[in-house]
What does this fold into?
Amino acid sequence: MKSKTLSAFQYAFGIMITLCTLGPFAWLFISSISYQIDLQEVPLKWVPKRITFERYIDIFTNTHNDIAYAFRISMGNSLMVAVSVTIIALIIGGLAAYAFAKYQFNFRRQLIYLFLFTYMIPSVVIVIPLYLLFQKMGMLDSKLTLIILDLTFAIPFVIWIMQSYFKQVSHDFYEAASLDGCSRMQILRLVVVPIVRPGILATMIFVFLLSWDEFFFSLLFTSTLHAKTISVAISEFSGKNAVDFGMVATGGVLASLPPLFIAIVFQKFLVQGMTAGGVKE
It folds into this structure.
């Protein structure tokens, strides 16, 4: 009797969590295919009387729609920034994490905690000196500036996560590779990286999501479409007298597709990286 009650409670709880998680996304999609007048009805209805995919068509084909044009440009900016941050952070942070995990040197532990501390500092605390610094350097409203700013929290994150994966690689692999005549870089490239590949891919996904969803720096350090990212562009989908809720929802749906696609493609490695830690015996 207890087991049936517990199972019923677990199923009910699982359904509730599913509804709470997927409900906002469902409403986002419904809003994107609903007419503006239907979205302004009181009370709102989950099932619209009529649907339209005109907003999706406008975003990709309409050259005279300023909002659609801004969305296309800002999505390209976000992709460029997120991909660049992910690649640079994995290279620099991965090499640093490897050094912290496998080599002993002075102040090693203190440096690890220092990187963790820099990752935990709220962005609002350092935004004013950063703004003044980039202003003097003439680097405001630049994708390069966003990449540099995103790397300030992406690299410490990679170091903290990846060094735990490198630590769990057995020392026997290093000895065997050394006996075969491999250099340190060859050991890293040919032995260590294949072993911790699930952890690298899991970290890659998290870093991409962090940089893709970043809003605070993008809002303050960009002012034109030359560098604005998708999160800022969606927040500006409004006119002088009204907000196009349908276009905001359409932008939100399309902006969620790249992270969703990456998570689906690499879900196997994501689960392995979070559970096994990249350890192979």
Q: What stands out?
A: The radius of gyration is 23 Å. The CA atoms of residues 70 and 225 lie 7 Å apart. Residues 66-102 form the longest helix (37 residues).
